[in-house]
Amino acid sequence: MVEQETNEKKNTIGADDSIRHTDKNFSRRSQFFAYSEKLMSSKYLRWLIIALVPVLILLAYPVDRLDYDLWWQMALGKYYITNKTLTVNHAIFSWTPADSTWIYNTCLGSIVVYLFYHLMGGFGLWLFQWLIFAGVFLSFYLFLRLMNRRLDVNSITIIAAIGIACSISCNFYKPELFSPLLFCWAVLLLFYVKIKRTPHLFYLYPLIFGLWVNLHGAFVVGLVFLALSFIGEILNRIIFPQESLTTEDLIHFGIACALSGVATLLNPYGLDYLQSLFPTVMNAIGAKNYTGPDDKLILAYIRLWPYLKHMSIAFLYVSVAAWIMTLMTLSICMLSIYEWVRKKSFDFTLLIVSIALYGKGMETGRTSYFLLLAFFFIFFYLLFHRLKMKSLGSGAAVFSLLALTFFFISVSYITIRYQADNSWFGQELDSFVPVKEVAVLKNHKLAGPVFNDYFIGGYLLWKLYPDYKVFIDPRYGPFQREVYRDYLAFTMKPATGENIRRFRQKYPFRIAILHYNNMNLIFDFLKDGNEWRLLYFEKNAAILIHQSLFAFVRWNEINANLSPLRFRDVKNPQILVSVFDIYVRLNPQAARYIYDIFKKNVSDCFLQKRDILISMENVIRLREKETRQQVGKQFL
After folding, report:
1. How confident is the model over 187-204, as a mean pLDDT?
2. Rounded distance, CA 209 to CA 258, Å?
3. 167/181 Cα distance (integer angstroms)
4. Which DSSP state fits 308?
């Protein structure tokens, strides 16, 4: 009996300890949530985060100095204004056979971009980009107000995530930036009607598409969005009529969709423009990996699927974008399933649009921004309108704060360690284009025609026309029938003297200007020093001339301007490495001077600095050894 009482006391004491332990844990969780609520309700923290997000976005959007599309877009804008027209024969800019019937319409977009640059230079282009960003942010903010919500740490974090992920497809200055803006407003309009039941506002769509068709070709994605949304709303009406648009609303929506398609005829080329887009659209739908020329070399065309498995620091933005898009799509799917389980209701439009945009965005990085932008509207609409949630809770706010911290750390790390000599606010936009190289060519007034590589042609079109016409440029379309195939066949393998002569029989150029991306091709030309000589090289490109022009060159002046001293203020590692590759093959002593400049000027924070210096030193020693051996053989 005594033993039984003792055991009962022990059990009672154990139970009390367990209760006290549980109460203690509960108290700690309560304190944590209470502290979280207090932290997240702080106005100072909220305004601090709102102020810091633009800084974060700014860090993730340095000046994209490798996008040569900007220059030919501005050349078109200048042409439209100068000639008082909205159409152009694209064959006039090249001396090679080009398709004069090819249609490309960004007339209003190219004019806007050109005017911003003409009036304010690189800063004007940055301002143009951030006005677009401001318009996107305004659509987000108005949508939150429509939902009777305000900016908080959760919505701000989602905006930051969208901004960072969009950096792989929106970090440029060209007419395509209008597409994210107009797409956002098209999505906002749909949800405004779904919430407020004001179907007459659907008739704003034709106005949007009448403008969009003259700004950029991604209006096609906007039309697909309307079509998918209309199909989704029909399914909603059939299966869940109580929470769908009414039949009358759908009639207005259908009419607005049809009128939007008709509105795209309001372009300078009319129906011909839409017909010219049909092959591209069909290729994009039918070909699993259709992108365009040299897609593997262009970040905008990169497939995002592999980066879900293989995360690289150097391509962290790509990996982050792939994972953010995937998590966004999964969250929409899970919320939709949760709505079905809880309310036996479902919104087909949200799921159809999300899955379609996710698939296209993962296939082509250039289109990834469509899902990223649409997610903001879909996510909050699901949470606060369909699921009637009052808030995401303090736990979500803490998670958002941690996510923001991760974004700041990762973006800052990439900026400091991997992107030496970046610039912002549109500054040094022309530091990666052949400004001085083109000036030398124009100064000597040598007779062409000119052979150039694919990407550099965009800048040559802007800067040399009409003095010189281009061989090829990143417009691609006018050259796809013949010139582009010949160009690939010539440049994708070593160019022997015989191959160069055979190529010149069809394209009789006497000047070649090549970007350092084609370093091997540059020295393929120079292997036969009797036929081709190096005229000039600078930060980004080299100019070579045929022997028929040797007599017209002031060689003393040229040689005096080839000193490595002209690069003593250069801090960009990419430029210095390219210049080093030129000098080390021509003059190893000059290459050692570039080595010293690299060692002195490039920031020690640049992660690859040490490895590049070691590689430079090894190459110099090898070249010096080869030079001594050649001298020894000549002496013997």
Report:
1. 97
2. 11
3. 15
4. G
Radius of gyration of the chain, Cα coordinates, nearest whole angstrom:
30
pLDDT of 115:
98
80: in domain: yes
516 inside domain: no
| Residue at which a domain ends, from 388, 417, 446 | 417
Report whether 209 contacts 273 (CB < 8 A).
no
Determine whether 352 is exposed, middle or buried from the number of CB atoms within 10 Å of its CB (0-12, 13-18, 19+).
middle
The domain of 623 spans 563-636
| Helix and strand totals (H; E) in the chain | 24, 4
636 pLDDT above the threshold of 80: no
Confidence class of residue 272 from pLDDT cuts 50, 70 and 90? very high
Element (H, E) at 412: helix 393-417
Considering the entire predicted model, what is its pTM? 0.90
Per DSSP, the three-state class of 288 is: coil
3-state secondary structure 166-233: CHHHHCCCCHHHHHHHHHHHHHHHHHHHHHHCCHHHHHHHHHHHHHHCCCCCCHHHHHHHHHHHHHHH
**What is the model's pLDDT at position 310?**
79
SS3 content of the chain, % helix, strand, coil (to 5): 70, 5, 25
Q: What percent of the chain has pLDDT over 90?
A: 75
Question: Looking at the predicted structure, is the pLDDT value of residue 13 above 60?
Answer: no
Residue 10's SS3 state is: helix
Query: Structurally, how many domains does the chain consist of?
Result: 2
**Is 245 inside a domain boundary?**
yes
What is the dihedral angle through the alpha carbons of 8, 9, 11, 12, rounded to the nearest 10 degrees? 120
543: left (phi over 0), alpha (psi -120 to 50) or beta: beta
Where among 417, 447, 463 does a domain terminate?
417
**Which residues are registered as beta bridge partners of 470?**
94
Residue 453 lies in a domain: no
Sequence-separated (6 or more) residues with CB below 8 Å from residue 52: 404, 408
3-state DSSP of 76-117: HHHHHHHHCCCCCCHHHHECCCCCCCCCCCCHHHHHHHHHHH
Query: E-strand spans in 331-462?
Result: 450-452
| Cα–Cα distance, 186 to 173 (Å, whole number) | 22
For 530, which DSSP code? T
Helix (H) or strand (E) holding 524, with range, is helix 519-526
Strand bridging mode 532-537 / 450-452? unpaired
- CA–CA separation, 429 vs 87, rounded Å? 28
Residues in Cβ contact with 501 at an 8 Å cutoff, skipping those fewer than 6 apart: none
Dist CA 187 CA 172 (whole Å): 23
Q: Are 106 and 76 in contact (CB under 8 A)?
A: yes
Could you tell me which residue, 597 or 314, shows the higher pLDDT? Answer: 597
**CB–CB of 160/56 below 8 Å?**
yes
